[in-house]
Amino acid sequence: MTLFRNLFLLLSLIVWSVSRAAGLSSEASQALIKRIIPEHADQFVVEPLAENNEKDCFEIFNRGNKIVLAGNDGVAIASALYYYLNEYCHCQITWNGVNMNLPAQLPKVTQKITKNSPYEYRYYLNYCTYNYSMSWWDWNRWEKEIDWMALHGINMPLSITGEEYVWNEVYKEMGFTDKELESFFCGPAYFSWFWMGNLDGWGGPLPQSWMNRQKDLQLKILQRERELGMKPVLSAFTGHVPVTFKERFPNAKLKQTNWNNGFADTYILDSEDPMFAEIGKKYLQKQTELFGTDHLYSADTFNENEPPSNDPEFLSKLSARVYEGMRQADPDAIWVMQGWLFFSDRKFWNAPQVKALLDAVPNDKMILLDLITEYEPVWKRTEAYYGKPWIWNMLHNFGGNISLFGQMEKVASQPAAALNDPACGKLKGIGLTMEAIEQTPVMYELMMENTWRNSAIDLDSWLKSYIRNRYGKGTVASNADMFKAWQILKNTVYNGKEIRDGAESILTGRPTFDSIAKWTKTKLNYNRADLIPAWDLFVRSAVTYSISDGFQYDLVDITRQVLANYARPLQRKWVQAYQDKNLSAFQKYSKQYIELIDDMDKLLATRTDFLLGKWIADARSCGTTESEKVLYERNARDLITLWGDADSPLHEYSCRQWSGLLNDFYKVRWQKFFAEVEKSMVSGKSMDVVAFDEEIARWEWQWVNEHKNFATQASGNSVVEALRLYKKYRNQLTN
């Protein structure tokens, strides 16, 4: 009897747990629907749906005058909602343009829709995204992003907000004082690289109020993600310790390492040291105590730092010890590893080294993120990661740079091609691993279209639907001009040829006579002239789509790109004038160059998507005192300009074509440069470029440390401004 009673109790507990989870998912799904379409929420019914072979699934059908959204969890139900909004209401929700023009009575679903995802995991985020885009987010912004994630099928987000709070607690319990940790924790804009062991302290000291804020924020983020059925990936210990660790534990085996980007050495605790596993266990226990766990842990060894030995045995033991530190705290731990090191340092990571690192961990206890698969599928040269489950990812954006770019054909075809390749091994998912978001929305809508299909996307057919959904008007026939424009975009900016990521404009580079500047790669993957006909078509369609939010953004963005491209031939003109010692020609073309920056700034001011003021105001709003606001503003200014100090080799890595930044930073640099060039031309002497670079670096550092308010609200009319610039520049572009 006791045995049967225990079995009954166990079965009852399982049924209760499943029912409770379904209830939570249903409540979370209904709440999401109310946030997305508050005036139509009562026209939907949410129902649970049993999983199909552990793969997510959803159904959409009518019951009376209600639309039923059935799914195995909240993400599946949210995906069903977005599918319905896309396919039946021709709506769209992106970071840069929303079309939610729904009819009063929603269209009926005449035949049941059933979708199954072939991918167990749909991963989201990169460590870098947390700073290049998310540094200053509050709960309102996070709530919108989690909704976006659910609508687009994301179920495995990287969730590392508040990690610094956990480390502070761990080290305090180990006896470290605030003074000993002051040089360890970096400023809020630099945690991506602190977490990866690349730097200590830069941009600090970090206030306790920031740690408290982020801890509270993470609790809300995780609660919402889990309610919707997501399984967040939390962090684990990889050896990064404070510099004061050597003083408190003089017998500890420490290794100095350097990221080689202008920052001081950091210290890594050797995995052979007994304290390695001890600290790893302490960290996961404290993190679980605070945030719970879904048993998924991100840990990246030697991120852009080369290991001290390429001996496979050494690498195998190191990997085993990292995993063991996780396992001791959580026997169900699964190590989620970014595969970036295999791409960025391929000379070191040959087959024996990769295999040794991976084989040391059981296959079912590790998941590999093929981080930039659309550009270089590392899985193809590692035998699909030697038996480990892995995820196909689109990286796409580096540093938050603003540029029309993408590998459109590959994103439409290659996930399905990999899925159906007999050599794909344990391909378990797809994902987005961009360094920054809130730009180029088409690439993210396209990538996540793969979630509920196992075949390639017909790009032309998909683009026609995308245009209709985005611009909220017309039919395939009436949208003919827009389809032609997008065909041009597909074959130019989105052709994915020759370059890894989007080109920058010479306008945002530190002033130079050369065609490129540090971190300012101006090589395009198309001929400048080939993009202009798309601009013509957008301008021709401006009246038709003038009230469309998505169209306004796209019109501004393509106008911005055409003008950003024009900066290079204009630069050639004033460089030639300088070389010819033609002062009047130099003054003419340098003046036009400055006017171009002014015009772009005014254009971008019409969209909040392109405002420096919002970035800085959001940073300051995180501060609880004036000194904190000053610190956070300095962090915000620094990351997108110098990145580090006045001598930083990373300056312009995270350049942004933003209104406010163009006029207040880039334009002023060029004006200073042109003044020096003119002075040298008048004197008949060659300009001292080295001296100018040193002087401008000091000015840049001064700018980083200033305070100034910039516009936080858009001004002007996007369509009117784009048409003005078209009239002004169109004929010049062919000269």
Helix content: 40-55%
Report the uncertain regions: 6-20
Q: How many separate helices?
A: 26
Radius of gyration of CA atoms, rounded to a whole number: 27 Å
What's the structural domain tally? 3
Mean pLDDT: 94
Q: CATH superfamily membership of the largest domain, which one?
A: Glycosidases
What is the CATH-assigned architecture of the largest domain? Alpha-Beta Barrel
Strand order of the largest sheet: 8-7-17-16-15-14-13-9
Q: Give the CATH class of the largest domain.
A: Alpha Beta
User: How far from one another are the termini?
Assistant: 93 Å
> What's the overall geometry?
globular
How does this structure look, described?
With 735 residues, the chain is an alpha/beta fold. Helix 1 packs parallel to helix 2 (74-87) and helix 18 (480-491) runs antiparallel to helix 19. The protein has 3 domains: 2-116, Chitobiase/beta-hexosaminidase domain 2-like (Chitobiase, domain 2); 121-457, Glycosidases (TIM Barrel), CATH 3.20.20; 480-734, N-acetyl-b-d-glucoasminidase (Four Helix Bundle (Hemerythrin (Met), subunit A), Up-down Bundle), CATH 1.20.120.670. Strand 13 (296-298), helix 11 and strand 14 (334-338) form a beta-alpha-beta unit. Helices cover 48% and strands 10% of the residues.
